[in-house]
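Incident review: delayed structure delivery

Summary: a single-chain prediction request sat in the queue longer than the usual turnaround. Root cause was a stuck worker, restarted by the on-call engineer. No data loss occurred. The affected request and its eventual output are reproduced below so the record is complete for anyone auditing the incident later.

Affected input:
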Amino acid sequence: MQSDTVQNDAQHSHLPYILTPQQAYVALTSSTSSSSTATPESSGRTIPLCAAWFWPDSPGIPSGFTGKDAFTTHHIPHSLFWDFEAVRDTDSQLPHTVPPAARLASAIHALGIARSDRLIIYDSAELGLFNAPRVALLLRAFGYPEVHILDNFHLWLQQGLPVESGPPPPALDGPSQPSSSDNPVESWPGRIVASFDDVRALSQAMGTNSADAQLLDARFESMFRGQEPDFIPGVPSGHVPNALNVPWDRILDPDKKGLRNVEELTTLFEACGVERERPAVSMCHVGIAAALLDTALEKAGFGGKTENRKIFDGSYA
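Output delivered after worker restart:
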């Protein structure tokens, strides 16, 4: 088990959900004591959690290069690694859908994470920001109150902040057994996921101007318009009727590889027809870029309150 590797602060100070590299660095280095001086049940630690993951054949990524390879190359010191390929619903015919509650709880426990821990989740340097919002959304909705996203590791490296190399470490010292407090959600994953029937009904309601929410599609415009094939083999291009297209590549700054600023996001959302107060259901190919879009909505204050937004798990697939 890992020890003396993350910082401990029994009284976590308030941090925004989306952190700059400097904010994350300060949070990781300015705590009052190390993790060896307190148990995870009694006092929280600040833990960097790498969620690096790549689509197969991602542009600019070497063939066969995985999130674990990216972690091994360089990561924030004392990070844990979230194996996105393993923590999913392996019984589903759709790729990378939300795991059952028991599987998610088991993965969290295997890393030694407690509910009192503060988690700072980040992606690979190659992509900057992509999969971390999906993992953060899962943990946040699963009842972990101190979950944050680093925007982003590409900038962390550019700013010369500390990194180390090597394979994922063993788990932290954590609760000896999962407890009911580590599985706090009674209805999972309904609190964050819109079902197929939900989306079909929303699509129909949007067509008659009677919808109480808005359906946002984060796929590339060419796929949304049916001009090129979808990433998912066998899935035709096009879109769900009455959905609004907010391409995920447009919410990112190509140089920083992170979210655009609030002013730029506001201009984009308004141009795409996104309403500020109406709750949003975000979709994409399978639900990863949808979580990225959900994070951009939160940053810019669009799509209604956090607790009223959802993603369409499995999405266009």
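Verification: The CA atoms of residues 123 and 215 lie 26 Å apart.
Action items: add queue-age alerting; document worker restart procedure.
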